[in-house]
Please model this.
Amino acid sequence: MSETQKATVSTTVNGEPKTVAVEPRTLLVHMLRDELRLTGTHIGCETGQCGACTVLLDGKAVKSCMVLAVQAEGHHVTTIEGIAPPGQLHPIQQAFWEEHGLQCGYCTPGMILSSLALLSEHPDPDDETVRHGIEGNICRCTGYNSIVKSVQSAAERIGRGDKPQPIQSGD
Amino acid sequence: MHPYPFAYRRASTVNEALALLASEEEPKLLAGGQSLLPVMKLRLAQPGTLIDISEIADLRGVRLDGDTLVIGALTTHHDLETDPLIATHAPLLAEAARVVGDQQVRNRGTIGGVLAHADPAADYPAGVLALEATVTATGPNGEREIPVTGFFQGFMTSALAENELLTSIRIPILDGARGTSYQKLANPASGYAIVGVAAVVTLTADGSVGSLKLGLTGVGDVAYRATAVEEALAGQQPTAEAVKEAASHAVDGIEPLGDLHAPAAYRGKVARNLSRRAIMIAVERA
Model:
């Protein structure tokens, strides 16, 4: 098998149909970042430990460095770029901002997608449920407490029907 | 971080997967990929062709077949955590599924993949041993049943033949008062079990132990049933003292592994303590 022989992958990414040609060994994260230029999905460890590359596959959180691009054929992928329209913040992003759920921000896209998947099954999670849900996402800044608060704040915002809002400039 | 190049084929039926296993060069089956892909990225494995079986719908899900629970090989950890039949008939597996990896791994990883991979520190081997499960393997000549007691043959080695596919796990449903528990000390970095202990206890009318099945993982290079513990407690009243004495035999005849995280003597001690705890909790739940 030559390294250049490519497979065609047709997926729906953030609601839009996409078809790209990739080598079978291409990881989903590389297809997203290098072929589709969706660089909001971060690469942290690339060994399946850190969760920075987490995206939603058919609504379920997966590490995109632990899925082959060809395995996404026929499926729906959601990245951080797809959770709110451009220039707007999803309620969970607003919650992370207001509750200081990030410092350097590197883990944040993955953290937010894991949290969204968690909230889809547990709309009002207690501390332990949040921590269990985000155990696959490593943050080296916050110490997690403010992330747990952010996720619970997001639960409240989503629960009361908040919609994405235009970004307000900070103080 | 790329694996070596390989060819990729997606199988949509068991027969298609078996045909590809027979025809492709150096084939490897891909289920959830949560163990295989990391190994390939580290270039510790170099399959010629990956046969992706993850979309074979028939192999996912849980059903009852008379008094046997049948779990499709592609049933994910998350499925096991949330499936009502598992909650009713094999809550031990839901308890184990909950502590596998993390949310993302539980969404992709499958019980069949874990068993076929035969990692000696995986969680399910303890549970399926204690539940006296049978593994169904499908090959060119049809299906065969492999009792799980003979399935794990050594470090990362199972009884599956190269031309076979693990298609389901069958678990007999027990009548009467039964309690189960899975207790685990996880490696804080990998999440794998330093030691994991699964206990299945039945009690008789007078409260004594009718039977105990105890499966241990992580201790040695292969998961095992601690028969010395089982025999020591059978027929006894499960008092704290009796359980502690029985559990002291948890590593009889086993040479515990030693590593950076748990030297052999410590691992043995953890195995005895978690055995005691798993039995006591299972008794409470019976």
About this structure: Chain B touches chain A at residues 1-8, 10, 30, 33-34, 37-38, 41-42, 48, 50, 52, 54, 78, 98, 101-105, 107-108, 189 (CB under 8 Å). Chain B has eleven helices and 14 strands. Residues 33 and 76 of chain B are 11 Å apart (CA to CA).
